[in-house]
């Protein structure tokens, strides 16, 4: 994995950052009775580049950031991930920001090539073959795509207290899921009926919500951080999102510096 990055100032108002990257991965996985990869030997190359320009529209008050990442991989080809963000700071203690960006997640090795035995149902009589329930990857799987919109506000009413509130709305395409396919008879390595669970893609998933956070330095040696997140979503079956992403999350983190090299932290979460 090799990365190069360079930044410079341009035209008095522009802070430019750009870079290049290359990643080489060689995989070799031995098959077992219950897990197989086809192919079980492969080489993956990822070439990447990015460019970002932070523009001071109004000095110390209004900034616009534009950029994009470009990635060429052996799985889904060329992926372009642009982003735009604007930050307005009307005072030294307040700021409002908004952003829109696109991101992708490339399928993993297992999602593409794996064959995993999930369950084996013994035969009911000597003349009936066993039933194997097996997950099967999709070599032609597309990358998951995300288009994210965010709007936030940050304030620091006093030196030791700050709080943030941010709303978000996300649109997903090609969200990974799984469906049960048509059973078939497999004669080897042992005769059986295979019930395949195949990797698939789901369109038009959406999530939205709000995040609230506060940071309070109660004493010079004691800091409290509180956070709350609300999340809702509209994801069609058979996506696995339901039951896996909590609608409400809350936490209160306490960080104490007791001195002489001792710290005491407590982080209850609900």
Euclidean distance between termini CA atoms:
38 Å
- Oligomeric category: single chain
Structural class: mainly beta
The largest sheet, given as strand count, sense and whether it forms a barrel, is: 12 strands, antiparallel
Beta-strand percentage range: over 45%
Unreliable sequence segments = none
Please, could you describe this protein's structure?
By secondary structure, the protein is mainly beta. 2% of the residues lie in helices and 71% in strands. The protein has one helix and 18 strands. The strands form two sheets. Strands 1-2-4-5-6-7-10-11-15-16-17-18 form a twelve-stranded antiparallel sheet, with no helix packed on it. Strands 3, 8, 9, 12, 13 and 14 form a six-stranded mixed sheet that branches. β5 and β6 (77-91) form a beta hairpin. The longest helix is centred in the middle third of the chain and has 5 residues, at 109-113. The chain is extended. The two termini are 38 Å apart. The mean pLDDT is 92.
Short synopsis of the structure:
With 270 residues, the chain is mostly beta strands.
SSE layout and pairings?
Layout: E1 2-10, E2 14-28, E3 35-37, E4 41-58, E5 62-73, E6 77-91, E7 94-105, H1 109-113, E8 114-121, E9 131-136, E10 144-158, E11 161-173, E12 175-180, E13 184-186, E14 192-202, E15 205-219, E16 222-234, E17 248-259, E18 262-266
Parallel strand pairs: 9-14
Antiparallel strand pairs: 1-2, 2-4, 3-8, 4-5, 5-6, 6-7, 7-10, 8-9, 10-11, 11-15, 12-14, 13-14, 15-16, 16-17, 17-18
């Amino acid at each position: 994995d090799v990365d190069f990055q360079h930044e410079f100032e341009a035209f008095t108002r522009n802070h430019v950052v750009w870079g290049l990257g290359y990643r080489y991965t060689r995989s070799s996985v031995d098959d077992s009775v219950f897990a197989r990869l086809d192919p079980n030997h492969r080489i993956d190359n990822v070439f990447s580049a990015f460019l970002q320009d932070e523009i001071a529209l109004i000095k110390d008050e209004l900034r616009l950031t534009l950029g994009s990442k470009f990635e060429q991989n052996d799985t889904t080809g060329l992926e372009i991930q642009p982003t735009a963000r604007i930050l307005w700071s009307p005072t030294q203690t307040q700021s409002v920001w908004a952003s829109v960006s696109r991101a992708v997640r490339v399928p993993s090795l297992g999602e593409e090539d794996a064959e995993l035995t999930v369950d084996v149902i013994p035969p009911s009589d000597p003349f009936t073959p066993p039933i194997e329930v097996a997950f099967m990857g999709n070599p032609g799987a597309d990358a998951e795509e995300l288009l994210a919109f965010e709007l936030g506000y940050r304030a620091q009413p006093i030196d030791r207290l700050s709080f943030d509130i941010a709303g978000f709305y996300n649109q997903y395409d090609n969200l990974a899921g799984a469906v049960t396919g048509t059973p078939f008879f497999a004669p080897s390595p042992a005769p059986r009926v295979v019930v395949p669970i195949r990797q698939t893609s789901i369109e038009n998933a959406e999530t939205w919500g709000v995040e609230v956070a506060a940071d309070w330095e109660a004493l010079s040696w004691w800091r409290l951080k509180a956070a709350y997140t609300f999340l809702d979503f509209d994801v069609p079956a058979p996506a696995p999102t339901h039951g896996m992403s909590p609608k409400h999350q809350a936490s209160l983190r306490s960080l104490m510096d007791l001195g002489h090299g001792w710290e005491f932290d407590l982080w209850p979460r609900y």
